[in-house]
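Comment thread on ticket #2218

A.B. wrote:
> Attaching the input chain for the structure job we discussed in standup.
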Amino acid sequence: MLRLKLAHGSETVDGKTEFVTYGYNYRLPELQSVMLIKQVDSLDDIVKRRIAMQEWYKGFLEPMGFTAQKHSDNVLHNMQSVVFTVPEGTDRDGFIKNLREREIEATIGTYCQSGVKYYREKYNDVQKNALWLEQNTVTLPCHDEVDKEQLEKAVKEACGADH
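C.D. wrote:
> Ran it. Output below, let me know if you need it in another format.
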């Protein structure tokens, strides 16, 4: 049970992450602590670069039918990844698989918390909008090492394979 708690309450079942109980994320190893101390000095610059990366994604993906995750204009968001809904009719899972085959880090955009096993069994009230978002969003990396040219090519190829 402790392993489940430390894994945010998740386990892998048939290759899919399933949240079967509530969990925790209190771990911060020493090495990460040292890295964090160094990054605090450059935090403002990191946030600016990530916001610029998100804007690049929006300029590239929105004309293709993707929709960026919304947040208030008065929010300074330090994103480590960006979330988009995929164009209607796109096989989101196939899209993610195609990107991964092209060495682009991608995963689902969000989990429907009311639909994971623990909450589904406890409340039996899966929220339809949250479920739709789980099935139709993609998360893409948002950091300095992203090769924009490689990513752009991979997305175009992956979208071509889906449509």
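A.B. wrote:
> Thanks. Noting for the ticket: The chain has two domains: 1-41, 42-162.
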